[in-house]
Amino acid sequence: MFVSEKEIEIRYAETDQMGVVYHANYLVWMEIGRTKLIEDLGFTYAGLEAEGYLSPVTDLSIKYKAAMRYGTSATIRTWIESHGKLRTTYGYQILHADGTVAATATSEHVVVRKDTFRPVSLRKIDPIWDAKYVEVANQVD
To answer: Which residues does UniProt call coiled coil (predicted)?
Structure first.
C-alpha cells in the first residue's frame, strides 16, 4: 500500500488549557497529510482548483486513542482506502514520535465543479490522476 508520511511539530497554539492538542487540529493535520499524499503521487490540489474543481469532505470519522501534547511531534500517515467513480476515501494514522497511535481516521471526498458544486468523476477531468488513485487504492501490504 502506498503511504505518505508528514511530520508536524506540535505548536503551543494547537493545545487546550489541559496542554493536550485540541481535537479539531487533527482535521487540519489530516488535510496536510492528504495534500502531501497528492503531491507524492505527482499531482496538486491547487492545480485541481485552478482547473475549476473542488474536493469537499462528505464524511469524516476519527478515533482518538492517545493524547498528544505540545513540545513533541506528530507523524501523519495517509493513504487511499478506496477510490470509486465519484468518491475517494482517505485513511489516516496520526502517530506519536515513538510510533504510538494517537488517532485513526477516514475522510470521504467527491470532486465537484467550483461554479455549480455538481459532482464530476475524476476520471473525466484527469484520467491520469484517476488511474493513479485506482492503482494505489488496490495495492495490498
So the answer is: none
Distance separating alpha carbons of residues 47 and 60, to the nearest angstrom: 24
Amino acid found at 20: V
Are 104 and 62 spatial neighbours (Cβ–Cβ below 8 Å)? yes
> Vertex 121, ends 117 and 125: CA angle to 5°?
90
Tens digits of residue pLDDT in 19-54: 899 999 999 999 999 999 999 999 999 999 999 999
Distance linking the first and last C-alpha atoms of the chain: 5
Report the candidate in 11, 10, 60 with the shortest Cα–Cα distance to residue 34.
60
Enumerate the active-site residues: 16
Domains of the chain: 4-137 (3.10.129.10)
